[in-house]
Specification:
133 residues, alpha+beta, eight-stranded mixed β-sheet, 8 strands, MMCE/EMCE_epimerase, Methylmalonyl-CoA epimerase
Length: 133
């Protein structure tokens, strides 16, 4: 794993959360993007070398909708940039981690993604991200 790629935050109201984070971080959202396959809309903020991703549910059956119902707003996941997502998935499987995806899938911000089950990482949902080249 190369670095923390972003921190994902589950939110209920995208417009309100974007205003809040624009004030908090002193910078505008640089990108919004729907991810239909996940039932979410996303907004990204850049702070130095780091990114924050806001995630709002667009469907009642999405993972974010379920997260918000169970836990409320807050940190949803930590994403790590990887050079080769396939190799990293294989390495983690070999180490005994449970992956929530059998294969990488297309995520927001031009990334291939895969999630590691939080039960295997002390309650933290981990996302692997590889830039689509």
């Amino acid at each position: 794993m190369n670095k923390i790629e972003h921190i994902g935050i589950a939110i209920k109201d995208m417009q309100q959360a974007c205003r809040t984070y624009e004030k908090l971080l002193g910078t505008a959202c640089y990108k919004t993007e729907p991810v239909e396959s996940e039932g979410v809309s996303t907004a990204f903020f850049k702070v130095g070398q780091n990114k924050i991703e806001l995630l709002a549910s667009t469907r009642e059956d999405s993972a974010i909708a379920k997260f918000l119902e169970k836990k409320g707003e807050g940190i949803h996941h930590i994403a790590f940039d990887v050079e080769d997502i396939y190799a990293e998935m294989e390495r983690l499987r070999g180490e005994g981690f449970t992956l929530l995806n059998a294969e990488p899938k297309k995520g927001a911000d031009n990334k291939l993604i895969c999630f590691v089950h939080p039960k295997d990482s002390n309650g933290v949902l981990v996302e692997l991200c590889q830039e689509i080249r």
